[in-house]
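S., here's the first fold you wanted:
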Amino acid sequence: MAIPKHTVDQIRQASDIIDIISDVVLLKKTGKDFTGLCPFHSEKTPSFTVSPDKQIFHCFGCGEGGDVFSFLMKYQRIPFVEAVQGLARRYGIPVSESPTGKIENRPVDPKEILFEINRLAADFYHDVLLNHELGKPALQYLMNRGVPLDIIKTFLLGFSPDSWDGLTGHFRRHRIDPVMGEKSGLIIPRKGGNGYFDRFRNRVMFPIHDGHSRIIGMGGRVMDDSKPKYMNSPETLIYQKSRSLYGLNRARTMCRQTGSVFITEGYMDLLAMHTHGLYNTIATLGTAMTGEHIRILKGLASRMILVYDSDQAGIQAASRCIDLFKTEKRYDDIRILVLPKGHDPDTYLNEFGSDEFRKAAAGAMSVFSFLTDMAIIKHGLSPNGKVHVIDDMEQQLASLESVDGLIRLTAIRELSEKTGIPEAAIQDRIRRSSATIRHSGKSRPVPAKPFSRLDRHAVMMMIQVPEIVSEIHRKCVLDCFDDPVLKRIGERIISVCRSCRTISSSELASVMMENSDDPIERRLVGELSIIHQEWTDEACQKLISQYEKKRKHDLNAMWIRKIKSAEADQNDQMLCQLLKDAQSALISSGGE
């Protein structure tokens, strides 16, 4: 579908980029702009900047940048049209009219159909749980597990009947295309192509929502010892496990208010946490945590607390998460809450209550306290065991040199206290290990060629002061550029400004980034748009005059080279002509 330009512009003007990005990035006001940790790459120090004045964002770390549409396209991995439509729905702007005023015959977005199918399924399961005889055992199961009715309704919990066609028949009665039902992953085609049957049967159902509270998939749990214990929807157009977190839509506000988030493994643990008032809790849907999960959560909270089961499987899951946090350079943001043996969050809360849980959470261990304790449990503290403990911790501590020296020193001191081995001995061991890592033969990246400083300033001026572009063009300033990339950007700016006589700085930056396929160009435009620079008339004219002086200098240097060449060749006739031409050219250009 082609959306009219005036509608796109209307949506862009109605959208607040701070409001949109704040949904997924924890932003802090810094001067005129807002800064936060980039959602597109791993970083510890905020380099992600959002300008409310220009309505654009730019990361000085990875170079991503653009307007509100660019952000949604990159973050949600959606095409331009879908980003526009999503914002239109959010701000109540119709997009169905063409430039002629006639309603367009556009196809329905398949993602919207899948959202509707999942909603219909969730309503069906929820109704069975609360209002049908078939759902009574499941309702009693939840009540026995300590899940109150208000939580059941809030999370739209349900029950899938022990039938091959309960949901399939419901879809049929609502005239749902079975092909789309299959694409939702909720029904499966029978062998031989003769109809469909339900994927979920005789399970307590947990609708999975995205950050906008749309249902994207389902999880189901058996009520006995059947296998598999848990089952989730397969991945679809709208459901990707690596980006989905159970309860995120409910937890977002409280995560921001508290600055922390509890991370559990399963549905029941999360429900127990919310039942006891710990609303800043999400669950990883029983799957391993991913880098995408961490990047989502770091936009909501600065402190992440893993609350996994105290059994061996829970310990191993926590250890895997630590490796991932290390990769994402988020070591100091993570804490590990180890519950007493035999407890998971669900059983602990039901036995001891939320106050005791909060006390335990306040004492949650750092990454290295946890790893040290696990190494001690594994090897013991005999003389030989201590050696193995140090062996286990050596690489972990050595890798911290490039992350945070203070964290490493604190970890070494704690390791010394717990093992009785002197800090100096551990330091020496770690120092040698760090040197090995540094000199492991990895080649250094070749630094990128720096851009011309003068040309950068000129392009920055053109983007931030579009009114000066016509004078830049008239005085042929770009002819004096040394940098081909910046010159190409300058030429595109002139083209845009000539086609649109009145354009603001923010509109110019958006158009430039939107219409460029070159990532280097987009990065430069974003960076030069968002850097604050006071451009008075005097400052603009001073920069232009530098190019005029440069032109005279370059022209003079050219004539000198030609004259010296003629002298070297002893070509008197050529020399006389060059002297006349040079004098004439320099006079006409205002030279001496």
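And the second, which I think is the more interesting of the pair:
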Amino acid sequence: MSILTCILGWPLLAALLLVFVPRNYRVIIRAIAVLATLASAVLAVKMFYQYTGAPVDADGYRFVQQNPWVESLGISYHVGVDGLNVGLILMGAIVAFAAALCSWEIQTREKEFYILLLVMAGGILGAFASLDLFFFYAFHEFALVPTFIMIGVWGRGERKNYATFQITLYLSLGALIALIGLIALYLQSGANTFDIPKLTEYIAAHPLASSAQNFIFPLLLFGFGILVSLWPFHSWAPLGYGVAPSPTAMLHAGVLKKFGLYGLIRIALPLLPQAAQSWMHILAWLCLGNILYVGWVAMRQRDLNLLIGNSSVAHMGFIFLGIASLNLIGVTGAVLIMIAHGFLAALTFALSGYIYQKTGTLQISELGGLCRPLRFIGTVLLMAAMAGCGLPGFANFVGEVTVFFGAWKVFPLVTSLALWGALIIGAVYMTRAIRNILHGPAPEKFSNLADASNPWRKLPYALLLASLLVFGFLPKLLTEKINPDAQKIVSLANSTLEKQNVAAVSEIRHPPSAIPN
């Protein structure tokens, strides 16, 4: 059995076990959830550490396990990792553990909440580990459905029902569009397999017709794009995260939202290279909507969760820009930001959840001076804000700089505008929020707030912050793993352009003979 099966299996097994635990055994329920996610996180760290020395299969994947399921359709349970998803699985497992630790805020229907949280965590890890299109999509849906339920039942605020309806509508539509694209890809390829490595190899030898690529690629781009909150299909995200319970927002904004980005890199770019070439310019301009427009919207927010939600959507623009560059530096930077943003989004939503539980509000105008009563939480919030601004020393800085270098070669004007959004807009709304929340006079009613005093309460915040710092100071831990496989994706995505260049050079060197009179 692959270690990947154990990583994704522990949360699912624990969810099944909780079904049989009486709901009044609150301590046992919480302990099972925490221990299961801890086991996944420890195994993910072990897997990441052993990655370089692990045996490699013929397709370049490690820790592979494949069991046939529906052989007539070419469907199998197939998991494995390479440089593109090894960091994502590590990040997902750590965030799931942190989310379980932060679930102390849930006081009603705890058994049901922890079951849904564990199912969501297992589905997320399964989606990133899967090398089969069927299970890739099925695991995502397995994680998506609990999101709707948790926001609808345990969400907060007057707009909870509206936000639940909107996020359900948008994400269901995005998932449906992506599903149509994946089915069309399976049917048009003629490979009779859902296996991603086999499909990639077959299409590389038998490229899809340009008409098929031009039909399928927009379905995947906008289907996955809606799931990632690509502008202008982004409005569900800030509102949904604003009312979601903190653990749900941590897992969805931090991890599950990267599913669409990972799908674009793993599936759309290498399998549909000709269409990708023609759509990347459009994607590059669309990403400015995330970076600039949503950044301006974030500047106007007076609710901390809405500010964090809009900031999260804005950061997706940098990842789209790296993907649009279609070069090694840009795609590597995109994967780096996916991992860094996962830690950052989880950390900021965990902190906002703590502040809400202690103060009863997230209205920035009603807060102030919290750095005195909440010294630990205030310090971590300040560092998280600096990471969101792209301060050197955090993993976000490495990813964004790498994306800018990669994109500058292809889209200098778009990159210049994106730089302005990153350096000015992001810095303004983050530093202004920190000034209003942490500094200045503290309201009298907040003078005796309880800080995260014991190590167990501090652990999730410290763990997420430490992850940002480790990969910020030692980005080589990720880049050495990402680069070889990102190069494969870039080579496949540019294969059509390379063939056209070779044909053009050949025609120049060997022009066709003149037609005789």
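Why I say that: The first strand starts at residue 62 and ends at 70. The CA atoms of residues 139 and 359 lie 37 Å apart.

Talk tomorrow,
H.
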